[in-house]
Amino acid sequence: MPVRFYMDHHVHAAIVQALVRAGIDVLTAQDDGFAAASDESVFSRATALNRVLFTRDEDYFAIAADRIRRGIPFVSIVYAHQKSATIGQCIEGLQYIALSAAPSDLNSVVWRLPL
What pTM value is reported for the model? Predict the structure, then answer.
């Protein structure tokens, strides 16, 4: 099963465009009608769609931690800090994940970029 990404509204369009050009399945919160949704709603939506959530918003760590504590499964989150991970590093890391991750790697895990 190929990795499919869900991008929250903090993700730069250049990242999305580069991944799409590379043939990676990407859905943005904006295109899905969730641009103004709460972080919790975006998190839940990505999980419902079985898409790995990519974000540059560290608030998702608390949501993931809460779900782990409560035993609620979710599809992985990939996080890249806005100031310490460049657009190029984000593209490279997400491409690596898309091409190399196995389905078992995508369950309730938080990944940080750069890898």
Answer: 0.93
